[in-house]
């Protein structure tokens, strides 16, 4: 589980008042206590999949009649609400499933409930998976464009401008040391070298860049591209991300640069970090600073290495970076052999640099608590598997050795006891699905795992979700009082697609669509967790550029395609603090729909729920992209 980055600005904690009031999403009446709410996937449903909506009612309403009507008002299907799946909160003591799976005809529809409880849904669509989810997957590509840093930016809806051009000659520093509160414990110590790390994607609502998250993101985007998505924006963003990752891995000196910028500085040391200043990124280049000034590291951002030149590097980094380069080689093998060979060599060299004994604490970010990953055999399985596939595609004699290594790391992962599922901290599903394909070719010598074991672990991951979903009124498989709800929901949906691709078994399809449904609006808030998607989505993301340059009411100038964290434990919102200096006030309370210890706070200060990130979005891209390509 991710331990969150601190809020972007340290502020005096105050008790917020965002729990007051409610936004009525597709309400049938202004009186929420006397009416119901219908929650659906805000995008729609594929014609051949299970279609479940939910009636939130103030009292048990089992058997309530519902109808599905088309745009002309004609009833096309009728049914009855099922037994309550549980209570949500004091205002909605029953959540009933509405099953309209029999509806298969393409079109636009609404669901209405009549009787003692009345409610009406927003309009949704029925169509093919490609028609519905292809365009939504494509929307997520715009988010990566909005996250671009450096000189090659895409203005887009937020009018992004070139920023952090000083990264082209950034000073490299020794590994920083932190106090228990994650503030710097001592001044940064330069190594005497500089490096060009201009460009790349900023990580989230801040402007720090992390190589681990970038590699994870590129890998998932490349999987969507490899499987058939030919969108030009996707191709452009992949090329942009790869260009920066190629800078981060210096093959000649065997140095891996893992971070640009520092999140939090130290008042005691007179150092401000990225999270201490709320601003547009292009303003950093205009600063007139000299060493010792508190904003020096805002303009002249420090770079940190995974290890000294030539030393072995953290295996999680080596594995996922190798996977990204190797996936690029697979895609380029179809069109540019020379480029494919280059990426293969980058993948091979970084993979060979992995530290696999006496590993110790993994390197992800500085401080480690920002991204406290503790698994790495899954990353090496993922990296070796993609190297094997790239090697075979390019006729490389090392392919068999990489394939064997992939089975060895898969065996190590299966024996590790790791119970996590697909997200930034666990790539095993990505490795397993492709390693099954490798094993079926009979290329592997002395395989250490079988297809059955790999498929069995994919089922283990899915069964974990199925078990948890059975206890949730909205059939979500994730813990709604923990971080990463959206990305983990999409992770389950993506794993279902990966599992089906290697087994042709559709028994988990309904579960997968339920997880996608939850992330796209079939939740108590009626909220899509993808900005710009569905009838209601977060209007106030915790994102500096979106806050200072965008709309605060969901208008045209929004951070389209960004996947936010999602609901979180109510205690995380007890003291959000003051509005950051220079920030634009933005809040749209939704407290009437909070429940079971969970809240979603649509407020610019509410980073535990409303901050988007490239890794969150990448897993959403993968789930939606694979669904569209099935």
Automatic annotation (TrEMBL):
Residues 35-116 form the Cellulase Ig-like domain. Residues 136-622 form the Glycoside hydrolase family domain. SUPFAM superfamilies: E set domains, Six-hairpin glycosidases. InterPro entries: 6-hairpin_glycosidase_sf, 6hp_glycosidase-like_sf, Cellulase_Ig-like, Glyco_hydro_9, Ig-like_fold, Ig_E-set. GO terms for molecular function: cellulase activity. It comes from the Bacteria. One of its GO terms (biological process) is polysaccharide catabolic process. Keywords: Carbohydrate metabolism, Glycosidase, Hydrolase, Polysaccharide degradation, Signal. The keyword Hydrolase applies. Residues 1-32 form the signal peptide. It holds the Pfam family Glyco_hydro_9. The keyword Cytoplasm does not apply. Belongs to the glycosyl hydrolase 9 (cellulase E) family. This is Cellulase.
């Amino acid at each position: 589980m991710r331990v969150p980055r601190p809020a972007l600005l340290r502020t005096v904690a105050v008790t917020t008042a965002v729990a007051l009031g409610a936004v009525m999403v597709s309400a049938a009446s202004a009186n929420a206590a006397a009416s119901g709410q219908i929650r659906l996937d805000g995008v729609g449903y594929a014609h051949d999949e299970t279609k479940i909506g939910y009636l939130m009612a103030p009292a048990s309403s089992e058997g309530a009649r519902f109808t599905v009507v088309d745009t002309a008002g004609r009833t096309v299907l009728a049914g009855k609400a099922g037994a309550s799946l549980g209570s949500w909160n004091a205002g909605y003591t029953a959540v009933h499933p509405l099953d309209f799976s029999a509806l298969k005809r393409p079109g636009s529809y609404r669901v209405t409930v009549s009787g003692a409880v009345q409610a009406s849904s927003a309009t949704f669509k029925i169509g093919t998976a490609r028609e519905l989810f292809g365009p939504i997957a494509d929307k997520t590509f715009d988010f990566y464009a909005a996250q671009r840093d450096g000189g090659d930016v895409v203005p887009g809806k937020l009018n992004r401008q070139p920023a952090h051009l000083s990264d082209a000659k950034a000073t490299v520093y020794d590994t920083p040391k932190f106090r228990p509160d994650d503030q710097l414990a001592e001044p940064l110590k330069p190594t005497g070298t500089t490096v060009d790390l201009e460009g790349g994607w900023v990580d989230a609502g801040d402007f720090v860049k992390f190589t681990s998250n970038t590699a994870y993101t590129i890998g998932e985007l490349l999987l969507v591209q490899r499987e058939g998505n030919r969108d030009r924006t996707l191709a452009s963003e992949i090329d942009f991300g790869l260009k920066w990752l190629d800078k981060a891995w210096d093959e000649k000196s065997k140095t891996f640069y893992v971070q640009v910028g520092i999140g939090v500085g130290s008042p005691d040391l007179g150092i401000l970090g990225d999270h201490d200043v709320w601003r547009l990124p292009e303003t950093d280049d205009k600063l007139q600073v000299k060493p010792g000034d508190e904003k020096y590291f805002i303009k002249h951002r420090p770079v940190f290495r995974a290890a000294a030149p030539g030393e072995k590097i953290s295996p999680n980094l080596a594995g996922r970076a190798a996977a990204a380069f190797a996936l690029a080689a697979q895609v380029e093998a179809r069109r540019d052999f020379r480029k494919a060979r280059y990426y293969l060599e980058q993948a091979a060299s970084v993979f060979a640099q992995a530290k696999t004994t006496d590993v110790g604490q993994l390197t992800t970010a500085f401080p480690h608590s920002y991204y406290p990953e503790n698994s790495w055999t899954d990353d090496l399985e993922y990296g070796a598997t993609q190297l094997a596939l790239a090697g075979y595609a390019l006729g490389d004699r090392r392919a068999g050795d990489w394939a064997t290594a992939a089975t060895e790391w898969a065996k190590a992962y299966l024996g590790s006891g790791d119970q996590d599922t697909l997200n930034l901290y666990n790539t095993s599903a990505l490795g397993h699905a492709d390693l099954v394909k490798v094993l079926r070719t009979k290329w592997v010598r002395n395989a250490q795992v079988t297809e059955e074991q790999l498929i069995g672990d994919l089922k283990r991951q899915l069964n974990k979700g199925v078990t948890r979903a059975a206890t949730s009124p909205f059939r979500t498989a994730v813990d709604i009082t923990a971080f990463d709800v959206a990305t983990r929901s999409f992770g389950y949906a993506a794993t279902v697609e990966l599992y089906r691709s290697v087994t042709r078994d559709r028994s988990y399809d309904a579960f997968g669509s339920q997880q996608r449904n939850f992330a796209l609006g079939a939740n108590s808030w009626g909220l899509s967790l993808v900005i710009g998607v569905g009838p209601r989505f977060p209007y106030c993301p915790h994102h500096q550029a979106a806050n200072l340059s965008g709309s605060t009411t969901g208008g045209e100038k929004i951070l389209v395609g960004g996947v936010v964290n999602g609901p979180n434990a109510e205690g995380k919102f007890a003291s959000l603090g003051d509005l950051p200096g220079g920030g634009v006030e933005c809040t749209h309370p939704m407290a009437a729909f909070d429940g079971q210890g969970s809240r979603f706070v649509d407020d610019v200060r509410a980073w535990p729920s409303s901050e988007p990130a490239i890794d969150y979005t990448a897993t959403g891209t993968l789930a939606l992209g694979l669904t569209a390509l099935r």
